[in-house]
Amino acid sequence: MNETLNQIGRLFQLEGQPVAYQSVAGGRINATYRAEFHQTDGRVRRYMFQRINTEVFPDPATVMRNIAQVTDHIRTHSPQERTLYFHHTASGEGFVRTADGACWRVMDYIDSAPLFAADSVELAAAVGSAFGRFQYLLADFDATRLSETIAAFHDTPKRIRTLFVHADEDPLGRAGKIGQELAYIRAVSEKASALCVRYAQGGIPCRVTHNDTKAANVLFERDTRTPVVIDLDTVMAGMAVYDFGDGARSVAQTDGRMDSVKFCAYTKGFLSGAAGCLTREETGTFVLGTFSVTVELAVRYLDDYLTGDYYFAPHSSTHNLARARSLIALAQDITEQEAELTQIVRAAEMACL
Ligand code: GN1
Ligand code: MG
User: Fold this and answer.
1) Per residue, what are the HEC states of 258-305?
2) Residue 11: enclosing H or E segment and its boundaries?
C-alpha cells in the first residue's frame, strides 16, 4: 500500500519526503489515509489521501468538478472561510486513476478537535450553524452549474416507486417480512413526496445542497475552533430544506425520537448560519423536510434490504431492515410532535429576525 501512496504523492507533486501513512477509519464510502511529509525546513505537512468509491461515484471527474466549483466560490467570495483544498496533478487534474483502476485524490489535512460532546445539544447547535452557513456562503452561486453525480439522489417519489417495483419483483423473497413497513410507506407516500413535487414545479428554490449534513461532516479546527464542512462528494443542486431535514434527522434525535431541545438548538443554529438567505417558504417547510428525508432514507434501506444489501454495506442480513424500522419510528414520532416542532421553527425564526 505504501508504494501506491508514494506514487500518488508524486503524481500530485507533493513537496517533501513521505514519512508516515495511517489508515483513517470512519468513512463508509471512500478509503482514507493520513500522510505525513517532512519538508526541507524541518516542518511536517499532512495530507489526506482518498480512494474514491467508484461504485457509488461512477464519474469521479464530475464529482471533483462539482467540488472545485463550490470550494473555489467559497475561497473567492469569503476568503476568511475554511473549506476543503484538493491538490492537482501536473496536468491540472483533481484525481488520478492508477493502473489497477482505482481513483485517488489528495486534500490538505484539517487538524481538528472534538469541541462538543457526541449527541449533545451544543453539538446540534454547532452542526446546524455550520450547514446553515454553508447555505449562506453559496446562496449567490448558480446551483444549476453543478452536475448530478448520483442520479435522483433526493427524488423521494422516485425512490418510493422503485421500492414498490422491487417489492413486487421480490428477488430474495423478503417482501413478505416487511408488509407493515411497506404499508406505512404507502400511507405517507404523498406527504413525503410533496416537497419534491413542489420543487419540480419550480415552487422551491434550487440551491447548492451538501446532501450529507451529519455531525461527522463538520470538523472544528483545533487552533481556531472554526467549523469546516467536509465530505463534499454529494454536493449537487437541490432543496435547502432536505439539507436541513437530514441534519435534524441525524443530530437532533435521542434514542430514535426527535428531541425537541436538540431540534430547537439545531434549528436556531441553522437559521443563524443561513443569516436570512432562505425564504419564508423554505423555512416554513423545515418540519415537513425533516419528515420527508427520514421517510426517504427508510425507503432506501428497505430497498437495499429487498435487493441484496449492496449499497449500504450492512453488518448483517437484517441490519438494513433494523435501520429502516428505526427511521420509520422516528418519522412517526416527528408526525406526533409536528405541531410542537413547527412552533419551535416559528419561534426560532422570530428570534433570528
Ligand atoms: C450514506 O456513508 P455515509 O454515512 O457517508 C449515504 C447518505 C445516508 C447515510 C445514512 C452517498 O452516507 O445519503 O444518509 O449513508 N450517502 C450516499 O446512513 O448514499
Ligand atoms: Mg458521506
Assistant:
1) ECHHHHHHHHHHHHHHHCCCCCHHHHCCHHHHHHHHHHHHHHHHHHHH
2) helix 2-11
DSSP type of residue 154: T
Q: What are phi and psi of 13, to 5 degrees?
A: 55, 40
55: which DSSP letter? T
Please give the helix or strand (H or E) that residue 342 lies within, else none.
helix 338-352
Closest alpha carbon to 298 in 174, 157, 181: 181
Q: Does the beta carbon of 102 sit less than 6 angstroms from any atom of ligand 1?
A: no
Using a 10 angstrom Cβ sphere, with 0-12 exposed, 13-18 middle and 19 or more buried, the burial of residue 350 is: exposed
Quote the pTM value: 0.95
Which tens digits make up the pLDDT trace of 279-332? 999 999 999 999 999 999 999 999 999 999 998 888 999 999 999 999 999 999
Pocket perturbation via mutation, ligand 1, pick of 28, 156, 295, 330 by most ligand atoms within 8 A of CB = 28
Strand, coil or helix: 343? helix
Distance of alpha carbon 24 from the chain centroid? 19
- The letter for the amino acid at 176 is G
User: Ligand 1: does its nearest atom lie under 6 Å from the Cβ of 56?
Assistant: yes
> What letters, b where the CB count within 10 A reaches 16 and e where it falls short, cover 160-196?
bebbbebbeeeeeebbeebeebbebbeebbeebbbbb
Q: List, for residues 76-123, the tens digit of each pLDDT value.
A: 999 999 999 999 999 999 999 998 889 999 999 999 999 999 999 999
Ligand nearest to the CA of 150: 1
